[in-house]
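re: the backbone from monday

yeah here it is again, tokenized this time
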């Protein structure tokens, strides 16, 4: 999803160039989720429209798929990680309360100058 960034008064463009995603390999059905939540699988499907989801492997942290997604976004945009100005990680399952998951992502992809936001 390459977009044309908005030019700023200083001439430097700002805006998303690309996004990335990385679905974990483990697929989980509503039956397992419903069993853990004590409800019927059909109720989950009817309420959310979700029929299955992806779970990270036991050895994966939230930042692991985020790093792969960031690498994919950089490749899609045709830029190096050290050229990034901002990294945004959207998750409802952070690794820990602080620092934001975007911090280890920034470090692991090699984007020391990027601001981070979760």
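seq for it, each position gets an aa:
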């Amino acid at each position: 999803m390459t977009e044309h960034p908005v030019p700023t008064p200083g001439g430097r463009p700002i805006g998303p160039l690309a996004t990335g995603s990385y679905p974990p390999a483990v697929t989980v059905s509503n039956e397992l989720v419903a069993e853990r939540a004590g409800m019927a699988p059909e109720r989950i499907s009817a309420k959310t429209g979700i029929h299955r989801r992806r779970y990270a492997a036991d050895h994966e942290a939230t930042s692991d798929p985020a790093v792969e997604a960031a690498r994919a976004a950089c490749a899609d945009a045709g830029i190096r990680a050290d050229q990034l100005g901002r990294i945004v990680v959207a998750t409802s399952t952070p690794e820990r309360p602080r620092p934001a998951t975007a911090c280890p992502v920034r470090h692991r992809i090699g984007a020391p100058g990027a601001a981070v936001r979760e």
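The mean pLDDT is 87. The first helix runs from residue 30 to 37.
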